[in-house]
Amino acid sequence: MNEKKEEILQKRPFWEHLTKIQKELLLREARIVRYQAGNSIYSSVRECLGAVFILEGIMRTYLLSDEGKEVTMYRLREGDCCVLAASCILSAITFDVEIEAQTDCVALVIPAGLLAAVSRENVYMDNFMYKETAKRFSDVVEALQQMIFLSLTQRVVSFLLDESSKSGSSTITMTHEEIAKIIGSAREAVSRTLKQLAKNGCIALNRGEIILKKKEELYRLL
């Protein structure tokens, strides 16, 4: 198991700058965790988790209002690192987030206490954490820009094209409810938009999936 952990951590820029003791601590304390689709990975009512390195699947980070309304901040895929699950050790983070497994996921988790200790002792680990935080805030700003400046049709189309590009497929296996959560809209509004796009021949709708038929037309809508 330690060989697998080391293989994962060696790909990170801080690894070669850690001391032998720090490496041994990370290999001993880090754990590989599996989450099922829909599982809550981190929330404001749970203790600080730590740094989460996604090995398989997709995770969604979102804000949850007192009324239960969700606003997706960003999603993370294989190769990404989620640092907001370690928000308790990042003084610049002053808000609570929720993180869930959108699909079945496998992740390497470095516990928050160990992460804080190594970051205090090693500037490379500390720098890595804040660089990852900056990346995530860039994602948040992009999501806000879309919500403020794009029409609902443009937001739906932008999501479909982005998802198709990242998955390498013209078929998106996702419900209207899931898309609505991700782009911050109501399911009914998303369904109406998708039906209109299907009527225009840009997409085809099947149960639980959306097939992009005319990407050129979709790009023109943006």
TrEMBL record:
This protein's record includes keyword Flavoprotein: no
Q: Where is coiled-coil annotated?
A: none
- Sample GO molecular function, one term: DNA binding
A single GO cellular-component term on record: cytosol
The yes or no answer to whether the keyword Transmembrane is present is no
Ranges for domain HTH crp-type: 150-216
Q: Which InterPro entries match?
A: cNMP-bd_dom, cNMP-bd_dom_sf, Env_Response_Regulators, HTH_CRP, RmlC-like_jellyroll, WH-like_DNA-bd_sf, WH_DNA-bd_sf
**Keyword annotations from UniProtKB, A to Z:** DNA-binding, Transcription, Transcription regulation
- Give the protein's recorded name: Crp/Fnr family transcriptional regulator
